[in-house]
Amino acid sequence: MESSQLNKARLLMNLNRASEAIQELKQWLVLYPEDIEALSLLIQAYISTDQHKAALETAEDMLGMIPDYSLSHYFYGVTLMLNKRYKEAEESLLQAIEMDPWDADYFSMLGALHNLQKNWEKGLFYADQGLAVDPEHVRCLNTRTEALTKLGRLEELQSTIEDTLAADPHNAYTQANVGWSKLERGNVHEARQHFAESLRINPTYEYAQGGMKEAVKAKNPIYRAYLGYLFWMNRHQSSVQWTIIIGFMIGQNMIRQYAERYPILNVALVLMILFMYLTWVMMPIGYLILQLDSYGRLALEKRQKWVGIITGVALLIGTLTLGVYYLIPFFIPVDSSSPAAYYLGQYSHYYELLFILGLYSLLVIIPLSRVITDAEELPTWFKVVSWGIIGLGTLAVIAGFFYIGLGYMFGTWALLGVVLYGWVYNFVAFRKK
């Protein structure tokens, strides 16, 4: 009877019904607490259901009961990694390798751990060590593909991709991983083919779904350039990323200081501000791109569709109103004696309101898209700040109808709020990642 219960747990795991397998395995382990296979299956079931803390506790129990078994150290290292205890995870995986240096799985996981920490050279080293044990080990080949992609070693990468696909072409992860590699190198069409094949094998595979969304967005040249920037930033350690960001801000301030003496620098300043703005709004613009694609919109959740629609409307209003604001002086000089110039002077109040409305429309996308998309993940205080900035911008537009000076005052506060908001949001998202 007990044997049939363990067989049932194995079957449930093979059917991707990990939650049910957990119950069967718990009952089995009450009778046989040191059953290695049952403990291993329970750890894997916890990992499959994202119960990383429970997986770590089970791995600790397994290690305590069977400390002389390499698999105990391996699972302990895996669960430590999932709980972001990277240094301890590396020590445990190295211990597993020391006890059994002929298991390529151990090397592939250690390589994946270093890739996760963006230590690409070490990730490549351990992937190669695993491939020395098993030249067709799929996970080592995938780990090698990722490391070579980030290192930009294209000749080796192409050979590794061919080996990876030859080793297991019907593996959803392999197809998706190759898709991401090709997407990072700008081969959008080929990337979509691999993502499509991955989704054919496993229609609910989120790694491939995310890649397919990015590939659809990448048909837009602006988004493709932005995606290239993200891939470039992602190759670097977090400390380097923050150095680049802070250096960008310092450079922007220095250019602003010298812009009066050298007016040509204003061009560079405008481009830098535009770049910074696009990095903040490209996520909702991505939803807009998907919304406009007949296939892409099928991949959007309801909230993402709303963000795409709101972004499109806000961009249209902002572009039109600011366009009119800056074009009117070219056609109606303020110092002319024409009737049009007279009426422009009479209604200058509403003319200035165009600027406030246009700026508000372009800036409100930043907090509004975040608070809608990440409503369940953002801290409560951050959501309050988000709605406060949105409200302040709305108040600037309303106040501008009655007194333009008041509108500009609220608008200035909202502008400063959005700029600070953009940096704080990046920091919060970065810490979460």
Strand content: under 5%
Mean pLDDT: 85
Largest sheet: none
| Global shape | elongated
Question: For the terminal residues, how far apart are their CA atoms?
Answer: 45 Å
Keywords:
433 residues; mainly alpha; elongated
Describe this structure in words.
The protein is mostly helical. It contains 22 helices and no strands. It starts with a helix and ends with a helix. The model has no long low-confidence stretch (mean pLDDT 85).
Summarize the structure.
The protein has 433 residues and is an all-alpha fold.
Topology:
Elements: H1 2-14, H2 18-31, H3 36-48, H4 52-65, H5 70-82, H6 86-99, H7 104-116, H8 120-133, H9 138-151, H10 154-167, H11 172-184, H12 188-201, H13 206-217, H14 221-234, H15 238-258, H16 265-291, H17 302-331, H18 339-346, H19 348-363, H20 365-373, H21 380-402, H22 404-432
Helix pairs in contact: 1-2, 2-3, 3-4, 4-5, 5-6, 6-7, 7-8, 7-9, 8-9, 9-10, 9-11, 11-12, 11-13, 12-13, 13-16, 15-16, 16-17, 16-20, 17-19, 17-20, 19-21, 19-22, 20-21, 21-22
